[in-house]
């Protein structure tokens, strides 16, 4: 038999290619790598031409129905040139069902020696030419496959853990909403609040990391919808002149779930400001505008968040015609001493006047910044210098104070 050169596979295609090379080298018909998941053996990579109906990636079998557990326990050998010579194998339904005439199987171990799965080759007929050297070939490959399989299992476990964390947040009280006031810069009155998410669950980290993780595992829209749902309940308590601003990614807008959410409790649409972050990429503006159309027709206002932080924000502004443009805090910070920041802000103020939208400055922290923004023609602002995010009871106290609410609160 010619020498077989085995190279360590680094991609799924390379893994299947190596399986094929070994299967053909041994003259066998099926080769696969499996992973133990609970009480089942799940096929992770398969080369089985003609046997796709029973051996395909993702197929799973009870460990009671396959040889794996018996081989690991020593009740069956790793090499069976003829399964008919072993009473336990003859008694197992899978032997006659496939049928399995010859079988080689070795464990795929993790770094700590734990069996993560098996590397198996089989034929429908006995083959007495198979020997221990063939088993050694299998062991060499199984050792190579152990590292990527262990990495894949670890990654999957992390994703499962992340999914569990997000599911617990959605079902419990790990997500709370705080409200940062948005002020008129001229009269220093509260016009609205931006709803911001806070997470009490472990690991303790910033909200953007929670949302990023949720999107990584396909639950980002669910988490944003839940945050918006909780945020909008404030409209039932705040004065009718106050609006609430909520954040949504393009994925959430395109999901089509917002119209039902906004109308579910008969909220006044004019009291809702929908913020689209500048950092979020919109691949198809026509489809995005179509998804926004029923919301805007109902009266929901649109804002582009973090304007000035990058090129995509200008794209959003030009193509979506927002009702509000929110200046990013990187543009607001130090604007009183930086001519370049003032020039860019002035350009956006001019654009807003020409197109009939309003400017909200984020991250206002000093009186000097506030006065400069007022002189530039910026109408609204928010930031630690004006008011930190607060729980709803504190927000209610703020708007009940004399001269704190601006009349006619159209978002």
Q: Going across the major beta sheet, what is the strand order?
A: 7-8-9-10-11-12-13-14
Using the 3D structure, state the CATH architecture of the largest domain: Alpha-Beta Barrel
CATH class of the largest domain: Alpha Beta
- Reported by name, the CATH topology of the largest domain is TIM Barrel
Q: Any idea what the radius of gyration is?
A: 31 Å
Helix share bin:
40-55%
The average pLDDT is: 89
Give the percentage of residues in beta strands.
15-25%
Uncertain segments are none
What would you call the shape? Answer: elongated
Give the CA-CA distance, first to last residue.
79 Å
The count of strands amounts to 14
Q: Any idea what the CATH superfamily of the largest domain is called?
A: EAL domain
> How many domains would you count in the coordinates?
2
Q: Secondary-structure element order, as H and E?
A: HEEEHEHHEEHEEHHEHHEHEHEHHEHEH
> Main sheet?
8 strands, mixed, barrel
Please identify the structural class as seen in this structure.
alpha/beta
Counting DSSP H or I runs of 4 or more residues, the number of helices is 15
Features:
TIM Barrel; elongated; 2 domains; 41% helix; 411 residues; alpha/beta; six-stranded antiparallel β-sheet; Beta-Lactamase
């Amino acid at each position: 038999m010619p020498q077989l050169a085995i190279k360590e596979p680094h991609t799924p295609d390379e893994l299947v290619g190596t399986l094929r090379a070994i299967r053909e080298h041994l003259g066998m018909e099926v080769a696969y790598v499996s992973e133990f998941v609970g009480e089942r053996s799940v096929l992770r990579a398969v080369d089985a031409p003609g046997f796709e109906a029973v051996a395909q990636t993702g197929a799973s079998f009870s460990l009671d129905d396959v040889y794996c557990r018996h081989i690991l326990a020593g009740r069956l050998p790793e090499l069976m040139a003829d399964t008919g010579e072993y009473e336990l194998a003859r008694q197992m339904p899978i032997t006659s069902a496939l049928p399995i005439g010859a079988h080689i199987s070795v464990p795929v171990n993790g770094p700590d020696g734990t069996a993560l799965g098996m590397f198996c080759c089989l034929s429908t007929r006995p083959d007495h030419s198979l020997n221990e050297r063939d088993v050694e070939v299998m062991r060499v490959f199984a050792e190579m496959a152990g590292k990527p399989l262990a990495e894949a299992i670890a990654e999957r476990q992390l994703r499962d853990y992340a999914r569990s964390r997000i599911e617990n947040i959605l079902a419990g009280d790990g997500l709370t909403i705080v409200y940062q006031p948005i002020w008129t810069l001229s009269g220093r009155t509260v016009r609205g609040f931006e709803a911001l998410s806070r997470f009490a669950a472990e690991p303790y980290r910033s909200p953007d990391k929670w949302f990023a993780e949720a999107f990584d595992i396909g639950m980002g829209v669910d988490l944003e919808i839940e945050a918006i749902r909780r945020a909008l309940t404030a409209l039932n308590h705040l004065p009718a002149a106050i609006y609430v601003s909520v954040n949504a990614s393009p994925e959430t807008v395109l999901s089509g779930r917002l119209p039902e959410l906004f109308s579910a409790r008969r909220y006044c649409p004019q009291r809702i400001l929908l913020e689209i972050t500048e950092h979020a990429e919109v691949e198809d503006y026509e489809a995005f505008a179509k998804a926004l159309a029923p919301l805007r027709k109902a009266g929901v206002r649109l804002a582009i968040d973090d304007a000035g932080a990058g090129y995509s924000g200008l794209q959003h502004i030009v193509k979506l015609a927002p009702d509000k443009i929110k200046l990013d805090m990187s543009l607001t910070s130090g604007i009183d001493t930086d001519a370049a920041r003032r020039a860019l802000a002035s350009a956006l103020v001019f654009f807003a006047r020409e197109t009939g939208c309003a400017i909200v400055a984020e991250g206002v922290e000093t009186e000097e910044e506030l006065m400069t923004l007022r002189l530039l023609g910026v109408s609204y602002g928010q930031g630690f210098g004006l008011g930190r995010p607060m729980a709803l009871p504190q927000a209610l106290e703020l708007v009940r104070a004399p001269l704190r609410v601006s009349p006619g609160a159209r978002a």
